[in-house]
Amino acid sequence: MTLRDKMLAVIADTNDSVAEREELVEMIAIALLTRKNLFVLGEPGQAKSYAINLFRRHITGARQFERLLSKQSDEEQLFGRVDLASLLPGSVPPTVLEQDATYQNQRFNLRVLVEGIGSMKDEPATWEKLKSGTEKLELYRAALSALHKSEPTVQTAGKIPEADIVLLDEIFKCNDGVLNSLLTALNERKYTNEGRTYPIPVISFFAASNEIPNFNDPQEKILEALYDRLELKVVTANMEDRDTRLAVLKTKQAGTFGQVTVTITLEELRQMQQEVASILVPDAINELADDILCELRKDMAVSDRKYLGYYPIAQAKAWLSGHDKVESCDLLALKNYLWRLPSDCEKVEAVLTRLCVNPMQDKVNNIRGMALESQEEFDAALGDGSKADTVRKAFIKLRGELTHLYQMQCSLRTAAQSDGETALVDDLLADLEKISRKAHEQTHFTYTTLEEIAALN
């Protein structure tokens, strides 16, 4: 079974236990494959946290940190607290002792000596050995203390700095102190305490809430930066299908709900991330993504940062779909990346569907539309009973516009990726030539193909 097959099996297994959450489950997978953060918006009881936790259970060796945030939550609950003992004179940070091979060897030898003291003869030599071992250990510990004098350490066991997957429920209820630390953690995977910066190995942060802040409210606007760092966003709803609800209920009653039948290791997930990052992104896809950006900006705000960071999501979708390079349909996954407010969802989905399901058709239609507009303008000039010089100028203008559109058509044909797309572009050329031929006939000019006209320019 390939790594892709394993991930698809995990997705299918999770979907079996969280009905009507296919979109959320796929986004959980994409978040983990791209090290992105995911925000889930939905009413209480819609299996938001359950879906994330269930997916995580399929990853063996993945350490998870989960916390329900409130205004009373502090940094210590999330990131750990400073070990006060590490600030006392003569103390040594526990992490230093744990990682020092010489200290651990001496400690082991002393332990062996202490455990065997009962079987040894009660004579001065025995106690001298014990004294010598103790003094060696204390002397070495004192040397380490001098090297790490008053070096504060943070006890991070079971906290975010030692987690692979983090789930923060009701994330927008955090206080200002926690907010500042979370911003750095989500964006840079770092945490600073007592002047020292610690790396955070977290793969993805998952956050859930039943509401989003009112960014027009000055008191809540401070949360906007945190919201923006949750790149992927999904909106959940209650189960709509009656048969689905009854099936889930029956599974829960049978005690088989939420069982894990397939797993992947943390190392396999890292290998999957490497495979995803190696998926080719063609120039045509980058151009299509730019078309999407320009179209969306007519009705909503989309930052340059959003555009410049789109490709990992597309790569992950292509990998899951079995593509060796990103295709236009893979950009449909951007539905959960490009919207900022829930009211934007329909706009984003409509633009993606129009431009990505059959992008060549849309481009062909745009060129054909420009050609028809040019023809209508020419016909209007012709129908006004204009003088010969005016008609000649109108014809030259139309011919120039058609020549430009012909060059655009040639570029589309070069970019065509299938026989169907090639046929669409060829039909466009036939329409352009038809308009050109008719104009030649109306003005009594000798007909010349657009290819020949373009060659002369």
CATH architecture of the largest domain, please? 3-Layer(aba) Sandwich
Determine Rg (CA atoms, Å): 33 Å
Q: What is the strand arrangement across the widest sheet?
A: 3-6-9-1-10
What's the mean pLDDT score?
86
Summarize the amount of helix as a percent range. 55-70%
Percentage of residues in DSSP E strands: 5-15%
For this structure, the quaternary state is single chain
Outline the biggest β-sheet: 5 strands, parallel
Instruction: Choose one word for the global shape.
Output: elongated
CATH superfamily of the largest domain: P-loop containing nucleotide triphosphate hydrolases
When the domains are counted, the total is 4
Helix/strand layout:
Layout: H1 3-15, H2 22-34, E1 38-41, H3 48-57, E2 59-60, E3 64-68, H4 75-79, E4 81-82, H5 94-99, H6 101-115, H7 124-147, E5 154-155, E6 165-169, H8 176-188, E7 190-193, E8 196-199, E9 204-209, H9 224-228, E10 232-235, H10 242-254, E11 264-265, H11 266-277, H12 283-296, H13 304-308, H14 311-320, H15 335-338, H16 345-356, H17 359-382, H18 388-415, H19 419-443, H20 450-456
Parallel strand pairs: 1-9, 1-10, 2-11, 3-6, 6-9
Antiparallel strand pairs: 4-5, 7-8
Domain ATPase RavA-like AAA lid: 296-351
Protein name: AAA family ATPase
Domain MoxR: 7-92, 143-251
